[in-house]
Amino acid sequence: MSTVAKQSGSSGTPATVALTKANIAFTTHTYDHDPAAASFGLEAATALGLPVEQVFKTLLADIDGKLVVGIVPVHRKLDLKALAASVGGKRAAMAEPAVAERSTGYIVGGISPIGQKRALPTVIDDSATTFQTVYVSGGRRGFDLGIAPSDLTEITNGIFARIARDETAYYRRHDGPSSALRSAYKAGVGVTRRRSSSRTTVVRSLLNMESRTSVTPG
Q1: Domain presence at residue 99
Q2: CA-CA distance, 32 to 21, in Å (whole number)?
Q3: Residue 152's domain spans which residues?
Q4: What number of other Cβ atoms are within 10 A of residue 116's Cβ?
Q5: 16 vs 1, higher pLDDT
Q6: What are the tens digits of pLDDT across the range 62-96?
Q7: Domain count of the chain?
Q8: Structural contact between residues 101 and 107, judged by C-beta atoms closer than 8 angstroms
Q9: Do the beta carbons of residue 55 and residue 44 sit within 8 Å?
């Protein structure tokens, strides 16, 4: 871990450059990324020895035809309806990975909310306010930044809102294939089904469909 005042040369990313230019304090955290990791976000939390509640994934969604960034803890699911409501929208769907990469200038698995090519409306789950420091992707796989939540809203011109939901509770409410479950694939969580004697049991299988867990999808 290192506290960064200046970032120069090839070691920097657009995120660190933007933070340095804005004179915002941040820390850098690197780890060896495993290409076989099922979830970029959960991998980061484990590798860095951080609580999953404190490590956040960056997701892009299409709200009424416009891209919006949602930032939620890596172990939770983005609530698309809540995200849409937070920006005054109605219809919401996860952005395609290629669209997210073109818009942000980052690759899936390393999409930072900071220093994106295009400034987008940004919403951060309000659970971030319970921490002095939160951790987000630094702009490449295996690289995270520690930053104060207030500074994260400043650099992204973002807002806080309750936009995350518990994945376990979500799946517990669904015991068969449905449009809601199909939407879960688009929102970044894969599900598999197995037959029991009485019903179809939905088994959660986290996929790396989040910004660092990937974008369509974390």
Answers
A1: yes
A2: 27
A3: 2-165
A4: 24
A5: 16
A6: 999 999 999 999 999 999 999 999 999 999 999 99
A7: 1
A8: yes
A9: yes
